[in-house]
Structure prediction request, 93 residues.
Amino acid sequence: MGWGRVALLEGIREYGSITKAAKSMNMAYRHAWKLVDSMNRQSRKPLVEVAIGGKGGGGAWLTKEGEKSIRLFRQFAGDFDTFLVREQKKLSF
Prediction:
């Protein structure tokens, strides 16, 4: 998990679509789909679920695991930033 994947997940949450999330990031749909597929395969439970388009249209949404992944990533990133600031102060003289 990294910032780009988290941004893609947040885009899917916002737009309800992998296509729209990818476009909002200037990312090719195929690349976005590969990232979603990779995240789903590497996770114990899927992070994103999709409905195939048709008369009513398709869509994509985050599962509880997808929401949890975003929350944990942001928490860890914040903890790491705090650690870096603390360590940098030790090096300043």
